[in-house]
Recover the amino acids of this structure.
């Protein structure tokens, strides 16, 4: 089908430029399309806020490819087709008695898209979603198939691949035995006390999220997702950081409907219904927000947070909400947490793109001393000169892409701007 004008991304801030959008229904059709194309990009769940998936030529959606979820209990792994969403996968795993180590805020995103951009959940001992990947299968630019497994020479360069190496068709992920989680939200924690002992906050739950608009002396909300049975420090419950537990379900946005969020108030339930912030049967705020995010080394967490708080007069008027989370280090070349434990500084903006883009250079300048890496799927201003120095394996990734896609079939304006240069 020819791309219609109304083909937009999830946020509605980007109209795709492709001449044609095709929906292969088999691996053979996908291989033929890729082989014949001069330039091609794959469209996932459309939850990118920039043009990472855009193209002026052929766009392919995997939405009509066979959906596959195959659990291997002996290997403690699951093989999934690329277009499966985390919500779909979580339900199947939970029913079979298994789990993933983490989920992102939204369960609606596709596994391939989240992995390819280094998307993450929260927890100081948990790597991002891509760290669960043990094998990737993809179609290369000539239509051939390639499978790479953990431990292979190029594996760490191929997982967070930004869609520049080939078309992901399947991924194999590590799984765990299912577990239960209790989620409690605290309101009004003191910023001064939180920053005085930031590590204690991060150690207080399996997953910790601080929600703020960066103004004032208090954190707006602190979401604690605690694995049932874990022995955890109870400083937050005992008032060390001030604040009180919420007495009704809350939404990260003040005044918004908390019933669309994952279950709170300390009620235990399966990981599949607690680790994400939102329920799979609701689509929160589509078209009503923009997003940016920056990942900073853990040792700079307090200094970076203090720097952002000072920038409140500039950013707070454009914010809906901001979130602070911790993520463990990994070995994936273009991951925001390559070779370093970190925190994520997430910004959910009002849908005012021109104004948001105008302040991003200032925000990135403030974060530059902390070697902040932007999330690949969200809005940011940095380009190749700034980004190249943030990733020790940046040039190795470029060499890998040159070898797997020598004609640059999978490259687009975004990738030339942020990775490969003109």
């Amino acid at each position: 089908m020819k791309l219609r004008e109304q083909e937009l991304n999830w946020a509605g801030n980007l109209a795709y430029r492709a001449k044609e959008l095709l929906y292969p229904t088999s691996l053979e059709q996908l291989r033929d399309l890729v082989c014949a194309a001069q330039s091609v990009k794959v469209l996932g769940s459309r939850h990118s806020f920039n043009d990472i998936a855009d193209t002026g030529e052929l766009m392919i959606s995997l939405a009509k490819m066979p959906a596959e979820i195959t659990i291997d209990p002996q290997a403690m792994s699951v093989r999934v087709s690329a277009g499966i969403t985390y919500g779909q996968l979580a339900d199947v795993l939970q029913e079979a008695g298994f789990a993933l180590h983490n989920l992102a805020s939204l369960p609606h995103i596709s596994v391939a898209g989240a992995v390819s951009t280094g998307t993450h959940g929260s927890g100081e001992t948990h790597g991002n979603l891509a760290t669960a990947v043990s094998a990737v299968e993809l179609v290369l630019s000539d239509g051939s198939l390639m499978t790479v497994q953990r431990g292979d020479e190029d594996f760490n360069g191929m997982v967070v691949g930004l869609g520049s190496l080939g078309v992901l068709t399947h991924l194999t992920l590590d799984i765990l035995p299912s577990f239960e989680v209790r989620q409690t939200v605290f309101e009004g924690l003191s910023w001064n006390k939180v920053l005085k002992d930031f590590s204690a906050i991060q150690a207080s739950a399996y997953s910790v999220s601080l929600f703020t608009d960066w103004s004032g002396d208090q954190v707006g909300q602190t979401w604690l997702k605690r694995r049932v049975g874990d022995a955890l420090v109870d400083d937050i419950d005992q008032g060390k950081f001030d604040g009180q537990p919420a007495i009704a379900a809350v939404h990260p946005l003040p005044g918004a409907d908390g019933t669309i969020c994952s279950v709170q108030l300390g009620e235990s339930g399966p990981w599949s219904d607690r680790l994400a912030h939102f329920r799979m049967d609701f689509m929160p705020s589509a078209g009503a927000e923009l997003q940016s995010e920056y990942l900073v080394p853990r040792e700079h967490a307090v200094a970076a947070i203090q720097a952002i708080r000072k920038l409140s007069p500039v950013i707070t008027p454009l914010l809906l909400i901001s979130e602070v989370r911790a993520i463990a280090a990994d070995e994936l070349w273009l991951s925001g947490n390559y070779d370093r434990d970190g925190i994520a500084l997430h910004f959910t903006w009002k849908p005012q793109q021109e104004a948001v883009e105008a302040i991003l250079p200032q925000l990135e300048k403030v974060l530059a001393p902390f070697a902040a890496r932007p999330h690949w799927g969200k809005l940011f201003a940095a380009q190749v000169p700034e980004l190249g120095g943030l990733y020790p394996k940046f040039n190795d990734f470029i060499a890998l892409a040159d070898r797997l896609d020598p004609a640059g079939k999978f490259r687009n304006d975004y990738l030339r701007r942020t990775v490969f240069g003109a």
About this structure: The mean pLDDT is 94.
